[in-house]
Write a structure and sequence with these properties.
With 141 residues, the chain is mainly alpha-helical. The longest helix is centred in the C-terminal third of the chain and has 32 residues. It is flat. The mean pLDDT is 77.
Length: 141
């Protein structure tokens, strides 16, 4: 009771429980280990990839590596030929970098335009597809 003889006002929040709720069990993949605990229950790590020793037991591993190297050399030769052809046609690396930068800028501007069309379509209660002819846009734009 307060000084005026009235009982105190009811609490807005219920009183905190005496025993805090217990935690739910953690996800097994995210479990932390306590220092000093024995980790032998997990067993040894086994890689999903075969070890180099197992693949090379009959010599197939070495042959496979040789074939991979040959394929990579052939691919490098093809790419070198393409590069030399592009250079002979007058293309330059700095032009390519400038072109890529312009494409990034174009895509950013296009994204903003698409966002504005979407907002306008919502305001008008139509689809963005219906707005394309109004703005002279092709569906492939």
């Amino acid at each position: 009771m307060d000084l005026r003889g009235r009982s105190p006002a009811p609490a807005l929040d219920p009183p905190a429980p005496l025993n805090p709720p217990t935690r739910a069990p953690r996800t097994p993949g995210l479990r932390r280990t306590e220092p000093g605990l024995n980790r032998s229950y997990r067993g040894t790590f086994r890689s999903p990839r075969p070890s180099p020793k197992s693949g090379q037991a009959d010599g197939t591993g070495e042959e496979s590596l040789y074939l991979d190297i040959q394929k990579l050399r052939e691919k490098k030769d093809v790419l070198d030929k393409e590069i030399s052809q592009l250079i002979s046609e007058g293309y330059r690396v700095d032009e390519l970098e400038d072109h890529i930068a312009q494409l990034h800028e174009y895509n950013d501007i296009k994204d903003v335009g698409q966002m504005l069309l979407g907002k306008l379509a919502v305001i008008r209660g139509v689809t963005t597809k219906e707005l394309y002819p109004e703005f002279g846009l092709d569906m492939n734009d």
